[in-house]
Amino acid sequence: MPLLSRRQRALPRKHSKKTPYSITRVMAGYQRCISLALLCLLLCHDSLGVNSKACTETRTSTPFPDSHFLPDDQPEGFAGSTWKDYVKIKPLLPGAHSFLYQRDKNDVMDVCKDKGGRQFPGQSKRDGWDFKESDLCISNKKFKFRKVTIDTDPSVVPQVIDEEKYLILGCVLVNKVCVPSHFEGNYHNEEPNVLDKGCAGGVPPK
Questions:
Q1: Which residue, 56, 133, 166, 199, could crosslink 137 as a Cys pair with Cβ 3.0–4.6 Å?
Q2: 96 and 153 in contact (C-beta within 8 Å)?
Q3: Residues 146 and 177 in one domain
């Protein structure tokens, strides 16, 4: 077996070792990339929300009807038979009807203020609406409400349940105060986004 020359001899591999300085430079590069990505996200998000029409349309009277709240003469419990008798006296159209509790009325009205709600682009964009024409706001907290579903057949007992969701409301100006105009169903269980502005366009309290 011939002997290998010095140049032909296999030399052992030398494993490169990264110095602490090089590792620090790599980590700093990652941090700069992450910071830049977050900045782009914030700028992009802000540009989507600046054209909300919440609290911009002026009306002459408070449009949010008291019928959205449980009046004293409505049934207290969940018995469908009780609501069936009630509907005979005060008819409700077939479909789902939501009634908020009177104890929450002030908090519901505050959804259209910076302290109680935020501008809402989520569901309107998902359903294909133009957010630039949307006057919707979503509450900062969940509300419990009574949901009564009336069948097209009057003989069918109504379904009565309690639900708890974030409220989505249309918000307009009445006497320079932003108030609810209508109750929008939260069909996708949407939640408020901490990046969104307050309902009136300001900064919500922390």
A1: 199
A2: no
A3: yes
